[in-house]
Structure formats: C-alpha cells, structure tokens
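Thread: Newbie trying to understand structure tokens

Hi all, I'm a second-year student working on a class project, and my supervisor (Dr. K.) asked me to get a predicted structure for one chain before our next meeting. I've only ever worked with sequences, so writing a 3D structure as a token string is new to me. If someone could post the tokens and maybe explain what I'm looking at, I'd be very grateful. Here's the chain:
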Amino acid sequence: MHWAKRFVGLLLDSIFVVAPVFVVFAFMDWWNGWGWFTIIGGIVLFLYSAIFEYAFGATIGKAIVGLKVVSIQRRLVLPSTLIRNITKIFALLLLLEFIVTLVVETTDAHQRYVDKLAKTTVIEKRP
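---
Reply by user tm_fold:
Sure, no problem. This is what the structure looks like when written as tokens:
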C-alpha cells in the first residue's frame, strides 16, 4: 500500500507540475518537439519536489495521499531533498532507480535507493 501511495503522489505531482509546463510549451513556436519539454518538465519537477519537501516535508501529491519525507539522522536539509529527487529529472532515471530499489537490499522497506543515499525515508503522516 505504501508504494501505491508513493506512485499516486508522484502521478498527482506530475499532473500539477508537468502538465502546466506542457501547456506553456504547446503555445510556443520554438519548443521543437518533445526534447525541450522532457528536459524542462523534468527540471521543474525536480526543483518543485526538492523545495516542497524541504519546506513542508511533502509535495502536494504526497500530502494528498498522507505521506511525509523525513531524515533518518537529523532535521531534513535541502541537500538531502535535492539528492533524493535527482532521478526525477529524466523519466528513464526514475525507472532505473525503481529497478535498482527492487534489487538492492535495504533495512527500511519504505526507502528508494536514493533515499538511502540522502539518508531519508517516507512515512505515513499522522492525522
């Protein structure tokens, strides 16, 4: 159930953040196809996720599904949120990270591989 919530949270964030980028690019003549859209959309999703997680502990999508990002060592810091979201820049990296997470053994079932690197985890938010 936890991973389903994380997926839905990411899907919601993609709708909130990447869809508006697509609309902007659709009205521009210079965007030159999907290349620029995927690069800019990924960078915007990365920055949005890192900044919202640092400032509020969750993105809008995570908050809607009741999840929160926390540090496993200390207070959550911006470099940790940047590290844990780096794979959102390119969808292929996000897919690769998901596969690595399935293969690499971890002591916390709620951690993706980059969560281990960033020393973070995602927990259920208390009501």
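A couple of things are worth pointing out once you decode it. The longest strand covers residues 67-71. The two ends are 17 Å apart (CA to CA). Feel free to ask follow-ups in this thread.
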